[in-house]
Amino acid sequence: MTPAVGSRAPDFTARNQYGEQVRLTDFRGRRDVVLVFYPYAFSGVCTSELTTLRDRPDLLAAAEFLAISCDPMFTLRAYAEAQKLEFGLLTDFWPHGAIASSYGVFDADRGCALRGTFVVDRSGVIRWSVVNPIPEARNPDDYAQALASLGGKP
Questions:
Q1: Could you give the angle at which helices 140-149 and 44-54 cross, rounded to 10 degrees?
Q2: Which residues are 118's β-sheet partners?
Q3: φ, ψ for residue 42 (rounded to 5)?
Q4: 100: nearest Cα among 121, 79, 71, 74
Q5: Do 5 and 129 touch, CB atoms closer than 8 A?
Q6: Tens of pLDDT along 110-127?
Q7: Is 70 annotated in the active site?
């Protein structure tokens, strides 16, 4: 079950594509955060979604974007370099899918995250979310609208 809008976002610590630890609560009081769960690095729809974000500096300036998949860290680094992705790609590899599970977007049969997005405000509260089926891309304009409602300027 996905956490409800208005509830506290489940905290987590994960490694990014460079092996650095990232903790959600480190952004409290500093920046709004957009958690973008995606199934697989190097897959068509995921690459399209993340490169669209890469090409939207208005969105990247409005919040901290953290893209999360169950791929290993070294895969994420190669993926970030290949696609020139400069925002954080976090690994949910081990314990496998633990972060995605805490957000209700882990598909245990496939061993990957669904396309879930959660906008978390500076106080750590979920203010907007959407979960799409694996083959269905999300619309980045929806992120812009959700961030604008928080006072961000996408």
A1: 40
A2: 35, 129
A3: 70, 5
A4: 71
A5: yes
A6: 999 999 999 999 999 999
A7: no
